[in-house]
Amino acid sequence: MLFITHELPLLYNVTDDIMVMYAGQIVEKGTAKEMVFDPVHPYSHGLMGSILVPEEGTRGMKITAIPGTPPNLKKPPQGCRFAERCKYATPECRYSGIPDRAFGEGRSYRCLKSVEELKEVYQNE
Ligand code: SF4
Questions:
Q1: Closest by alpha carbon to 94, among 75, 80, 76?
Q2: Ligand 1 atom closest to Cα of residue 93
Q3: Which atom, in ligand 1's list, is nearest to the CA of 88?
Q4: What is the pLDDT of residues 60-75, one digit of tens each?
Q5: Does this model's pTM top 0.70?
Q6: What is the 3-state secondary structure (H, E, C) of 16-48?
Q7: Domains of the chain
Q8: What is the predicted pLDDT for the residue at 7?
Q9: How many angstroms does the Cα of residue 86 sit away from the middle of ligand 1?
C-alpha cells in the first residue's frame, strides 16, 4: 500500500518505511522510526520540525516553518531542488549534481553535506 501525506508522524503508525519526496525527487528514505525520530535531510528535518505531534520523544519540540515555496517543475533548478529554501545551502549546492548517499542499514539521502555535518548543525540550533 502506498500512503501519501505531509505528516511523517502519522505514517509512523501505518507503515514500516518512509520515503520523503521534494520537487519530484526522493530526498531521503529509511524506516518509519528512523525518519520520524532521526531525519537527516534538511527537508525531512524541516517537515518534522513543523508538525505538532503527541508522540513521546517529540514532545516539547519547538515548531519551525520551512520558508519559501517549491520550485517550478517546468523548469527545475540546477543543483539541489531544495536549495532556495535550505538554510544550510552553500553556493556549491546550487550548481553541483546532488548524489543519493547511502548510510546506515538501507537508508539514503540526497544532499552534499555528510550525515555528521547535518547532525552537528541540528544539535547546535
Ligand atoms: S545539498 Fe545543500 S541545499 Fe540541498 S539540502 Fe543539502 S545542504 Fe541543503
A1: 80
A2: 2
A3: 7
A4: 667 888 999 999 999 9
A5: yes
A6: CEEEEEECCEEEEEEEHHHHHHCCCCHHHHHHH
A7: 8-123 (3.40.50.300)
A8: 78
A9: 6
Report H helices in the chain: 8-12, 32-37, 42-49, 91-95, 115-123
Distance CA 94, CA 90 (A): 7
In the structure, which protein residues have their CB atom closer than 6 angstroms to any atom of ligand 1? 42, 80, 82-83, 86, 88-89, 93, 98, 111-113
Closest by Cα among 15, 36, 106 to 4: 15
Strand pairing category for 25-31 and 107-110: antiparallel
**pLDDT tens, 8-51?**
778 888 999 999 999 999 999 999 999 988 999 999 999 888 87
SS3 assignment, position 13: coil
Q: Which atom of ligand 1 is nearest to the CA of 80?
A: 4
Residue 68 grid cell: 519559501
